[in-house]
Amino acid sequence: MKNRISIFGLFLLIGFPLTAQELIWEENFDGNSLNMENWSYETGDGCPDLCGWGNNERQIYSKDYVAVKDGNLVITADKVGDAYYSGKVNTKDKFEFQYGTVEVRAKLPDGHGLWPAIWMLGANINEVGWPASGEIDIMEFVGRQPDTIHNALHTPASHGNTENIKTTPIENVTSDFHVFKMNWTKDAITFYIDDKKTYVFSPSEKNEKTYPYRHPFYLLLNLAVGGNFGGPEVDDSIFPKQFLIDYVKVYKYQDSK
User: Fold this and answer.
1) 83-86 and 135-140: which strand pairing?
2) What is the tens place of the pLDDT at every residue in 74-132?
């Protein structure tokens, strides 16, 4: 009994979690087609309700620019004639969760005007709208800032503006795969790149306007072109370009509600 108490105390002192994390959902992109039990395509240009997807983006999303090949999800951005095309997928109504850890291994495309993203939206967005739903940007990269990764949160308190953000410099970030991770609890959201902590978001006052993160969310993966953040200039000589996602894993503490 003494040994058990001392071990328990030691775990508390050094901060080890007393409950293990459980893998509750994963996508390894095996086979040669997108698993439609997990994902849905988003298509078009956002019109008429959200033209340019609210950011003056230039791309038209099409499922023809989403593929599964060699164990990766491949999202391709290209210019055909005067139009830009790309791909976007989400897990809305198929996989939604509240609290846990998201881990994504991905290789980013380079090129001025590209804007790949790994992100999440509140599952209640159809009922309350954006930004009341909340948004968690696990990873955003823009080609005009070639060695910088962005982690960001959008809340009603910030009126949807990107006020809650951290940028992390990573040299030659597009040259290889990296692991982007986000840990989400009822009190804080913590971001990591290759297991290095980059940003903790935990406002002192937490309510629906400052911390709209106490309800289920779903995942999104996309590659935008241009837009308020990605552009406005686009280097047309870069196309086609590919955003590769090796896997997506979601963990939850076994005692999480």
Assistant:
1) unpaired
2) 999 999 999 999 999 999 999 999 999 999 999 999 999 999 999 999 999 999 999 99
- Name the DSSP class of 109: P
Of 135, 171, 205, 208, the active-site residue reads: 135
User: What pLDDT is attached to residue 158?
Assistant: 87
Distances in whole angstroms, Cα of residue 223 to Cα of each of 119, 148, 167, 215, 239: 11, 16, 19, 26, 13
Spell out the long-range contacts of 166-172 with Cβ–Cβ below 8 A and sequence spacing 24 or more: 166/191, 166/198, 166/199, 168/193, 168/198, 168/199, 171/147, 172/147
Confirm if 87 and 223 have CB atoms less than 8 A apart.
Answer: yes
Is 140 within 8 Å of 119 (Cβ atoms)? yes
Q: Is 22 a catalytic residue?
A: no
Is position 135 annotated as part of the catalytic site? yes
Measured distance CA(257)–CA(19) in Å, rounded:
13
Mean predicted confidence (pLDDT) in 174-198: 98
Q: Which of 42, 103, 140, 233 is catalytic?
A: 140
Higher pLDDT, 158 or 133: 133
Question: Token match 């953000």: residue?
Answer: 165
